[in-house]
Amino acid sequence: AILAVNTFVKDCEDANPLIRALAVRTMGCIRVEKITEYLCEPLRKCLKDEDPYVRKTAAVCVAKLYDISSGLVEDQGFLEQLKELLCDSNPMVVANAVAALSEINETNATGYPLVDLTAGTVNKLLTALNECTEWGQVFILDSLAHYSPKDEREIQSICERITPRLAHANAAVVLSAIKVLLKFMEFLPNGNEFSAQLSKKLAPP
């Protein structure tokens, strides 16, 4: 197994980004705790790779590694690197980072969310929402449902950017959008005009 890992470590330095991504993905699938330490350095490099395909693949690998050795992931600072990817310039990298953090959160023993969403991070997620796949949109919307907006103006701004998802062809995206909108409507006072407008949009045709 160690000989195989040495080959993958070399492939992580390959000039071809597809080879680098495939190498880190394959290493993430080797579920042998004794060799996880060999993963750390190549994974760290791939999380900062110049190619977004490599970065998005590495993000998912962190979640796989956490499942094998959560302590190692925390000690090596991979969770912090994942959080940094939430502000990546590529929407698919952002979506995969959200997905990885969500997966880790489900098995996190503390029960506390790993990411304390800020207004800046939420804005990045909303920007990525317009450009990523349906799968990525669901993960981003589900993470936004845990955000507590600071005032009515922010609620309106976020809801207006999410509302177009109600017309999406994918039912999972629509349901995730509804979940966020209903959550944010709870922050609005009774009889609020914007809340009434949202209720009409959520009502069946």
Short description:
The protein is mainly α. The chain has 2 domains: 115 residues, Leucine-rich Repeat Variant (Alpha Horseshoe); 88 residues.
Structure write-up:
By secondary structure, this protein is mostly helical. The mean pLDDT is 86. Helix 3 (40-47) runs antiparallel to helix 4. The chain is built from twelve helices and no strands. The N and C termini lie far apart (58 Å). It has two domains: 1-115, Leucine-rich Repeat Variant (Alpha Horseshoe), CATH 1.25.10; 117-204. It has helices spanning 2-11, 17-29, 40-47, 52-68, 70-75, 78-85, 91-107, 119-129, 134-144, 152-162, 171-185, 193-202. Residues 18-183 form the Condensin complex subunit 1 C-terminal domain. InterPro entries: AP_beta, ARM-like, ARM-type_fold, Cnd1_C. Keywords: Membrane, Protein transport, Transport. It comes from Cuerna arida.
